[in-house]
Design goal:
This is MFS transporter. The protein is an all-alpha fold and 423 residues long. The chain contains 17 helices and no strands. The longest helix has 52 residues.
Amino acid sequence: MATGYGELLRTRYAARLLTGTLIGRLPNATAALAIVLFTRSEGGSYALAGALSAVYGIGTAIGQPLLGRAVDLYGQPRVMLPAAVASGLGMVLFALVGLDPLPVAYAAMVLAGVCTPPLEGGLRALWPHVLPRHEQVHAAYALDAVAQEVMFSVGPLLVTLLVAAWSEAAALLVINVVGVLGALWVVASEPSRAWRSAPREAHWLGALRSPGILVLIGSFLFVGLALGSIAVAAVAYADEHGGGMVSSYLLSALGVGALIGGVCYGARTWSGEPERRLLLLVAALAVGYVPLVLVPGVVAMTVLAGVAGVFLAPALACAFVVVDRHAPRGTVTEAFSWLVTTFGVGAAVGTAAAGPAVELGGVVAGFAAPGAAGIAALLVLVGCRRFLAGDAVRASAPTGGDAGAENDRNGAVEPGFRAGHQA
């Protein structure tokens, strides 16, 4: 297992691209906490902090697919670096102006959110061009998902340390400067500068004209909702079981489970259609969420949370492979960005929905939300499986192909072709 990942990371540019992307995404991973801490330090209420954070989140949801489409059209350096700088300037403006005047603070959040560069989608578009074997691409998707779990765990800790060492404003400034440097490290690399999307049909729907992409978006909206609702339910559970670090135990166990599952999944070469494998992984994910409604003691609940997280990273990694197979030609970065955005929106919705569920039905109702969302994600895949059928996908593409190109397996107007980099 370690040998396989070591070989992957020793491939030229692989470690640089993975590390640079994670550093470049640090502002996005820490924005919610950093905005709340800074707003409170300026005398703002929690309601205002939540509103500013929501504006940032909505801006990100809007900007990611649009910037992803721009990357497909114009290349990575010409879009991602200016976007990273503009997003960072939005946060700098927020840190310097504070909450007065308030319209400027909201404008800064819009700028920072909308201009967040689609580094995650860009990295996944680069992997097939950097890694020589298709099984390594599959492993890279899994490693990427695992690294993301680590980043979202370490990022908030870094913000807290910066606040303790300097101030909330300094934390905003440092995190965003580091993020711009991460984006620069990625786009200055040869693979990023050389990458070009395949020619695309001019179509206003872009990646969304693919039925397979729409099915994935619908399913992973609910996967995100499940993850977001667990965070709120964990806090409510902690309130009934001694408070303190109990919620951290549950969420840490969830992250550790995802890390273990992702590492093990990516270390193996999988045969068969990834669309069918994704169905099984989402089914296992849904089954893992259901026992949380039992709300046993802290030790048993922590174990259940760890089990619930095991299939999250593998499901995400497999979904990335399926996205690559179903994205219309010339839209791969946009397609990845849509999946990332939808997952984030789902998490935000889950966070918002779990609160009323806990108030109305207690902790059991709070943990019923992720179980129901997991089942809904599975039902979307089952009900729409004909749009993801591997045989139908293959039938729409002629044989032969280019190892460096994207797939178009969806009956789009332009002819599709088979790519050699599939995992």
